[in-house]
Amino acid sequence: MALPLDGIQVVDFSRVLAGPLCAQTLRDLGADVIKVEPPAGDLSRRAFPRKGEISGYYAQQNAGKRNLSIDLNVPGAQEVALRLCDRADVVVENFRPGTLAAFGLGYDRVAARNPAVVYVSISGYGQHGAWRSRMAYAPTVQAETGLTAITEEQFGRPDGRLRTDSLSHADVYSGLHAAIAVLAALHHRDRTGEGQYVDVAMAAVMLAVNERVHADLSGEELGAETPILGATDCPFFTGPGGERFVSPMSLVGSMSFSSYLAAMRRPDLADDPRFRTPEARRSHLTELHAIVQQWIWTFDDMASLNAQLSEAKIATGRVRTLHEIASGEWAAGWGAIRTVPDRDGGEITIPGVPWHFGADCQTPAPVPPQPARQGEHNEELLRELGYDDAEITALWRGGALVEPAHGPEHRLGGPVPERLRTGGGS
């Protein structure tokens, strides 16, 4: 079955996470993605764990992309990149503002040659304004936009030290929002024929995905009442068989406290002075938690417990490791985990795609996408752009093309490969 973006070509100048994830999302939707790497390669190639040239980090964000490795400082290289952009439906980059423009690859120049292009730039704080030139990584953007402070306020630490999150939310959410914007811009182009520039700021994304902004900026004093329906005050319990699980329903919040009373058949607790108000429940939270926990242990198993909790609209989620979820029945049935070649005879495990298409919602399993070696598709792509043997040889001799996967002699203007000396094809 054809995927939604079959026929769309994406040129991906980005590196590490936000931009590569955007382009990878488009690739998984069917687009042909060409990743353009500098001579030093994407930093994520050097991440651990890795085998040879391919790291798991690189494979997760780039498997299935074709690869052109080129030195944009060398004469002729910028024209190669521009010819790629001439054919592109989408260009993705996540450098600091102005970086690609300095190489003659900014939106204005690309769009002058290809007015239908959708060009998306992902940066920390946007292309304009006082913070446009700041370096930006997920932990710094998350600190600047309130996430770190909210985490500290909610959970705290006995030693008073701040902590950041274990995952790069700002990068991941920004990559996904960039992909959403690209899809909208492509739809606009289908209707009007016009391409356009898309500016994605990681800081703005982190505000957009924060479901409690309205509460924190309301100016209202909420006391001990939980401000939102979200996951800021989730109790953990131990199930009848020793299972650790979490409920998204706060024991303190007024909306959710009544759900626990309904599930336990304990309306009397509403009149207990320890639990009448959110402030009282907060002060006596250990006692309240113990009451619920003891009630949980009256059940024979999680199935019977979940049945009664479900009546009161209380969900539960077992605390599982990634190994547990990946090896379970659900992941196998959905196709939530896939493996790709590590280019060294083994495999790397990465996530599957998070959507199924088709009337029966069963997307056929595609051939596992292969993470490309740096410069692996140099000649193939140049020939697609119309370069002949002599022109490719000249680019090679001039040091524009980089293929470290073929050995150190094939870096930056080393000896011309035998296939080009003899006039052979790719």
Q: Could you please describe the fold and organization of this structure?
A:
- The chain has helices at residues 18-28, 56-62, 77-87, 99-102, 107-113, 138-144, 147-155, 169-192, 202-208, 213-216, 254-264, 278-283, 285-296, 302-311, 322-326, 329-334, 378-384, 389-398, 418-421; strands spanning 9-12, 32-37, 50-51, 54-55, 66-69, 90-93, 118-123, 196-201, 236-238, 244-246, 317-318, 337-341, 347-351.
- The protein is α/β, with parallel strands linked by helices and 426 residues long.
- 38% of the residues lie in helices and 12% in strands.
- The protein has 19 helices and 13 strands.
- It has a six-stranded parallel β-sheet, with helices on both faces. Strands 9-10-11 form a three-stranded antiparallel β-sheet.
- It has two domains: 9-210 and 324-398, Crotonobetainyl-coa:carnitine coa-transferase, domain 1 (Rossmann fold, 3-Layer(aba) Sandwich), CATH 3.40.50.10540; 236-318, formyl-coa transferase, domain 3, CATH 3.30.1540.10.
- It is elongated, with a radius of gyration of 27 Å.
- Helix 1 crosses helix 8.
- Mean pLDDT is 92; it is low at 407-413.
- The longest helix has 24 residues, at 169-192.
- Strand 1 (9-12), helix 1 and strand 2 (32-37) form a beta-alpha-beta unit.
Count up the helices: 19
Strand order in the largest sheet: 5-2-1-6-7-8
Task: List the domain count as a whole number.
Answer: 2
CATH architecture of the largest domain: 3-Layer(aba) Sandwich
Query: What is the CA-based Rg, rounded?
Result: 27 Å
Low-pLDDT residue intervals, each spanning 5 or more residues: 407-413
Oligomer: single chain
User: Overall mean pLDDT score?
Assistant: 92
Strands, count: 13
How would you characterize the largest beta sheet? 6 strands, parallel
Q: Please write the CATH class name of the largest domain.
A: Alpha Beta
CATH topology of the largest domain: Rossmann fold
For this structure, what is the CATH homologous superfamily of the largest domain? Crotonobetainyl-coa:carnitine coa-transferase, domain 1
The general outline is elongated
What fraction, in percent, of the residue positions are helical?
25-40%
Helix/sheet category: alpha/beta
The termini sit apart by 29 Å
Region (Disordered): 404-426
Organism: Nonomuraea jiangxiensis
Keywords: Transferase
Protein name: Crotonobetainyl-CoA:carnitine CoA-transferase CaiB
